[in-house]
């Protein structure tokens, strides 16, 4: 009987990993494991066998899974599993998008003001409340780290830096703006600023960004 149970246990695990979990995903929640039929005792067994690592409450990692994500990206993925509404913004988004060359020591997550009750608590995390219009504008996903992450596009990230320049510093804002322009993509030439100005309008900083663009291109 025990052998039958073990065989069933192993079969369900292999089925989950090979057929229901994308190769790029390294993290999995308790809820998803339970949906696949794994309960408390079996989760303990998976941990003892080295199949799972407990990251934090409700979140596990697959040690053998592919995807060499940076620690910052992995931490973002863990937090987005804990806080489904969380979207990487500001320094975290800039790091993912290559708008900055330094990896942030802490994490910035945007939350929709009307859809989340109270501010969550998590060590090393800054939560930023946004109106629905600002929160939804420019949302995208990023796979550059090997982990699927929710973030904002480059134009929206620059606008967010401008809107929060008193908190992050004007120099940090100008750095991401210059990097954005230097790429030569959206916003990289006078005729390609539409995405940036659209994001700036939503974030109520269009006038300031237009002024800074004029100075930088003078």
From TrEMBL:
Pfam families the UniProt entry points to: AbiEi_4
InterPro entries documented for this protein: AbiEi_N
Domain annotation AbiEi antitoxin N-terminal: ranges: 27-63
Protein name: AbiEi antitoxin N-terminal domain-containing protein
Species in which this protein is naturally found: Deinococcus detaillensis
Classification lineage: Bacteria, Thermotogati, Deinococcota, Deinococci, Deinococcales
